[in-house]
Design a protein that fits this description.
Elements: H1 2-27, E1 33-37, H2 41-54, E2 59-63, H3 66-72, E3 79-82, E4 85-86, E5 89-90, H4 91-96
Parallel strand pairs: 1-2, 1-3
Antiparallel strand pairs: 4-5
Helix pairs in contact: 1-2
């Protein structure tokens, strides 16, 4: 059963990735910089991969905590994907800055 669940999960994830990337490409906006703030390594890498596919010319910045995210803020971030639960606080703290 575990093998079947992994296959289903992989297929669902692949379908989601494809549809998300297609939607972002269809939106047509050319992002310059995207910030991803996510504490979980796998999720951070997956989000970065989707953003690189959708916006191949964009600079993808990643951070693992509120502290590192605040260091990446430079006023030119056009899109931010921020986890609300981070090791050193809330993702809302990043939004407030």
């Amino acid at each position: 059963m575990t093998g079947q669940m992994t296959t289903i999960h992989s297929a669902s994830r692949a379908a989601f990735e494809a549809s998300a990337a297609l939607y972002l490409k269809v939106a047509g906006h050319r992002m310059k910089q995207v910030l991803i703030v996510e504490g979980v390594l796998e999720t951070r890498h997956w989000l970065a991969a989707v953003m690189r596919f959708a916006y191949p010319n964009a600079k993808i910045l990643t951070a693992t905590s509120v502290h590192t995210a605040l260091g990446e803020l430079n006023g030119e971030i056009e899109l931010a994907l921020i986890d609300l639960v981070l090791p050193d606080g809330s993702g809302l703290d990043v939004l407030r800055k």
